[in-house]
Every structure is written in C-alpha cells, then in structure tokens.
Amino acid sequence: MTKCGYVSVIGRPNAGKSSLLNYLVGEKLAMVSHKANATRRRSNIIVMHEDDQIIFVDTPGIHETEKLLNQFMLDEALKAMGDCDLILFLAPVTDSLKYYEDFLEKNKKGVQHILLLTKIDFVSNDEVIKKLQEYEKFSDKYEAIIPISIKKATKPSTVLDEVVKYLPEHPYLFDPEIMTTEHLRDIYKEFIREAIFENISEEIPYEADVKIDKIEEKPNVDVIKATIIVQKDSQKGMIIGKGATAIKRIGKAARAKIEELSGQKCYLELFVSVKKNWTKNKEALKNLGYDIDAK
How far is 179 from 174, CA to CA, in rounded Å? Predict the structure, then answer.
C-alpha cells in the first residue's frame, strides 16, 4: 500500500516556506519574496517521493494583527494546521524559541510535527549545534529535527524520507502527474504579485492585489490580461511609474515567470485600478478571493 497525506508547512512570516516547497517539488509554483507576509492563502503542492504522494500545503506566516486581510491569512494558517496529517514547522536558526513556543500553543489538535531548522547557511556549524541543543528541551514535542539549507543543497530526500514515515497508508488522492491543485490563473496571479514585491518598495505591495481578467491560449502564445488593485490614487501612480517604467518592469518580470512555467510565449497586458481601502472591506476582500465570513 502506498502512503499519501497532507503536510502543512508552518512558520513565522519570511521563514522560507515557499522557497522550501519550490525546492522540494523542483519547480517554481509558490510565491517567494524576501518581504514578510507575501503569501496570503493556502495552496497545495504535490510531490511524488518514490511510490508515495505528499500533498504539501503552503501557508501564510503565523502572526497576530487586527487587519481584516491579515486575519484571513492567520485563519488560513490555523486551518491548515488542524486539517493535515503532519506539520513541518520551519524555524530559522537565528530565531528565538518564542516562535516555536507560540506554534505549540496554536497546535490545538496536537498534530505531530517535524521541526526544520532553516537558513543554516547564515551561521557557523557551532551555532547550528548550539541551537539544536536549545531545542532539546522540546524533544518530546517533535518527531524529528532537521537542519536544512537550500543554498547548501540539502538533498530533498533528507526531508521527504522523514516526512513519509509519518503519513498514513492510503491510495493517491491526486493524479501523480500533477504538481499542484491550483488553477493556472491563481498561479499567474501570484507570479504578478511576486513581480510587484520585487519591483515596488515600501508598503504598496502589501496594499496591492491582482485580478486575472482573461486568459486566452493561442497556438503560439498565451494572452493574459490582469488588473492590479491598489488602495490609493498615489499608489496607482507609483505602480505605473514615470513613462510607465514601473509597470513595464513588473510586466517583464511576471512574464518571465509565467513563460518559465508554461513553456509558452506570453503576451501580458496589465491594468491598474483603485479600490479605496479594499484591505479593510469584507466585500472587496471576498471579490478577490479572501472570504472572511467563510472561516
């Protein structure tokens, strides 16, 4: 019998969750940003490991806030924790143990978990050993603790071999050929959002979102039309930029990501629309896929 199950990837904002998942699957599917709180909703990324199927659930970072959008993000992370067979908790090696202690409190169902000590390439081996010793007092809480570094090329099998040990025996839940349950329009939306994070500074990326208006698959090119949503007129001006330079940079970066995944040429047309205070409005959030009341 094969093994198959859901594994939620949990951690504070900017702990490296999306980077880890892209590395494990061998494709760029999850949005990655050096800025915290870039991931806004759960997404499934499917990894076949030998004869077993792992459905990883990428999640927003665990953090407390009163903003409506951020409440949705926290709810997404907490729901993923309660609905899975196993949790991977990512703990950057330079973090204090308070983030892990907070996770233990939020893990209400006591779902078994593996602790991944991430970003070990930033510190010496002695510092890694010291941090491992600090976590020893919690050894009865986690199933395993694994130091990892994507840059130092920790083998994916180091993590995957350990993960499948704790998955139930079960037939595959998804076609082994697919890598994600996400629709292409949702992946493309995230690629455009990622391009905004890369090319626009300050708070604007956090107050911007993307709506895919149309995808038309032609023989030699994919035609995509999308609207970038912002909260203020001044933000619209900054997204467009002088002589449309900023929006051209965003479009170029997003197009490269889309073409890499699809293997097809892409014609991407971007528009910008102002929706006043959309991050604080339940109806506006719902229209963009963030349904607060459904939680």
Answer: 9
Residue the block writes with tokens 């971007």: 270
Other C-beta atoms lying within 10 Å of the C-beta of residue 134: 12
- Whether residue 37 is predicted with pLDDT greater than 70 in this model: the reply is no
Asked whether the beta carbons of 116 and 20 are under 8 A apart, the reply is yes
Q: Strands 52-58 and 86-92, how do they pair?
A: unpaired
Q: Residues 6 or more apart from 193 whose CB is under 8 A from it?
A: 31, 38, 205, 208, 209, 210
pTM equals 0.83
Say if CB 148 and CB 117 are below 8 A apart: yes
**What is the 3-state composition of the chain as percent helix, strand, coil, each rounded to the nearest 5?**
40, 25, 35
CA atoms within 13 A on the CB side of 288: 26
pLDDT band at 133 (very low <50, low <70, confident <90, very high): very high
